[in-house]
Amino acid sequence: MTIALPIRLPRFGRRPKSALRKELVNLTLPILVETLLIMTLGAVDTFMLSRHSDASVAAVGFTNQIIAFVFIVFEVINLGTSVLCSQYLGARMRDRMETVVGVSIVVNLISGLLISTALYLFATPILDGLGLDGEMLTEGVSYMEIVGAFAFFQALQLTFGAVLRSNDKAIYPMLVVLVVNCINILGNYALIFGELGAPALGVKGAAISTSVCRMIAMVTLCVITFRTTVSRFPTHIFRKWPRLEFRNLMKIGLPSAGEQMSYNCSQLVIAAVIAGLGMEALAARTYCVNIIMYVYLFSIAISHAGAICIGHLVGAGRKEGAYIMGKYVMRIALIWTLIFSLSIALAGPHIMSALTSNEQIIALGVAILWIDVVLEIGRPVNILFVNTLQAAGDVNYPFYVGLVWMWSVAVVGAYIFGITFGFGILGMWWMFALDENIRAVVFIRRWNSRKWQRKGFALK
Length: 460
Known about the structure:
By secondary structure, the chain is mainly alpha-helical. About 50% of the residues are buried. The two termini are about 40 Å apart.
């Protein structure tokens, strides 16, 4: 897949368009592959556990939702790390970049250990309080106690990955995820089913395999980071805590993670409302969500890559170049996402028929995939500008926009049209499309206003 389109990309300061396009491609492709692997391997894990028992799938799926929600705490630091490292690198402030790396490691290690302890000690009351019982509660607790106890591995893995990507070394996290996920498949096969001389541990086996793989990934990325990117650990932070860098990390991370938390909470509420429409509606949503995530996969990858490039340009003071780069990446993301969305909609009847024989679910799913074509006009724009505005230092604006429009249109509006007016899940999906497109217009206006150009951190 090539992303070189006939769109003129002007020279950004001293960096010619060919160098910037090469940097964009070199970042986009490994991030694309890494994200694809994460999505696909999650589906493989679910399939392998389904061979063990339905209760295991339900318990682990529910438990992972809780763990993923808790992991947003780690993203507070990692989002700030990515933005500051990108800007300091562009500004040639390597010493401050290394200080940020040290602060990030220390803060995420401490928060990771605290969260690991809480997940291990309170696994039973958490899952019991959220409604799991019987076999699902037993399976969920055994999984959370193991995976939760070693959550700090994931905290550090995410930190090292953010540092490497912001330093144009996205290839390393991609390769590590590829190798580790292959190990995870083998570990699941051996420990879930008792193959290759290992005991059959079921859900505990999956938890052990996941935790060991996260440890391997963390150690590997740590070694790569300190051999290729950071010359040494900045021990001076223990003599005098760098308050400015910590304050900037939190100033970026809290609203950035807040935007993610707002989105995740709105999706949980929406899922609960759709569940009230019946099994067919909920099943159609589940199928479509898992199909559609591959439609905007490319937007996620190029948006993260574009945000890193823009962070470098902002840090170097090339704000006009950053503005033009944002417009350039938006066009590419929008064109390719619409092509993928139309292709999926055209193939919708065949895809849905391969997943289920229920005619009602098939009909709902096909209709949703066509509505999603309209939705995908806005989604790539939102994915891009949430990332690029954060990279430029304009971190509060995406949070406020998401908080207002997601909840007023995608949640309240969807409930009114889907439940009150009786249009069901299709009426709700039209409101999701309206939400995405309204936010896209708002973000484009923000980018064109150039108010974000006064928000950088590298010169503070």
